[in-house]
What does this fold into?
Amino acid sequence: MIVLKLIRESFKFAIDALIINKMRTVLSLTGITIGIFSIISVFTVFDSLEYSIKSEINSLGSDILFIQKWPWAMGGDYAWWKYWQRPNPKLSELKMIKLRSNTVENGTFMFAVSRNISYRTNIVEGAKVNAITYDYPKILNLDIGEGRFFTEQEDKSGKNVVILGYDLAKSLFPDEDPLGKRVKIFGRRLYVIGVLNKKGSDVFGNSPDKQAFVPVAFARGVVDIRNMGTTIIVKAKPGVTIEEMKDELTGIMRSIRKLKPAADDNFALNQTDIISKGFDQLFGVIAIVGWIIGGFSLLVGGFGIANIMFVSVKERTNQIGIQKALGAKRYFILLQFLFEAVFLSLLGGAVGLLLVFLLSWGVKSLFDFPMFLSMQNIILGITVSATIGFISGFIPAWTASRLDPVEAIRAN
It folds into this structure.
């Protein structure tokens, strides 16, 4: 009952302070509001970005490896020019991997170039053209809405066929059905056999909507790929871990390239968790910056709360004296002012959280980005607000609890 009475009276005093001294209270709570907004908005953006990035990475699959010339994360004592001297992966190496590997379920070979694509008078400049093998959809998702994917025979024979992204097809064929039509790429005529469903851009800005896909054998006949960044993508068999496949592929690639036992690997086996770890480190650094920026605002807000409480103690000194004369204990006075400080701080924090919520809603509505205020961040904002209120209000509350009742009653 005593605790409930304390909470009720403290809440009443906090509201009275807000009503009677509106400007002073609002200005003092602004620091708390800005601090909570700064910290929680940073974490909200990070959580939303992390969710989107990990969703994109997980969509690639955790059981695939990218065999490439360049690693996704460079470092150590390995000189950059050694990376430059490495050979690019070859289609023949993919064939050897399929023959020798016991862990690889499937694999594909690919490279990409930028080319103009035209149909009659409609031209799309600098479109990304992906040269891929027929196994590509078995490893990475390729959502075909109309038509079909090319067959193994069409791939191996270098058939002049193409699959268009949704936006690319709309740009080239605004009023026609693209299937069966011939577009011009590499100075050659290619038959459109498929159109992808619209997907939109991912968090990295990539989108298959503006890309085209052709058989590797066809592209090799019209493009010199000797110095081009090629990639082999392999998928592990069910029950095989990524590390098991990585260990086996290291041995197979070294054998294919006839590397001596003491020689360094002249290839990179990249996996998706490298991207996740890189972003985790980046977010960790920026989170510290967010805490520092928000910390200064919270410090200012803490001084504001302390100022309100010192003024409140001074204004209610006579009342404190009467309470103590009637038998009120020191802890009662102490908790009364502490609760009041915490309530005021929570009020500033609640406004900050409301601003973060409005920011999240606005970004989600205007930019179609899945930004959300999580329950974890709401709890964090409330906890930080309450902590700042407790720390800021402790000294004024302690001062009030130590007042002499006689001297306090005499105070004007």
Q: What stands out?
A: The mean pLDDT is 83. The chain has two domains: 2-56+277-410, 64-271.
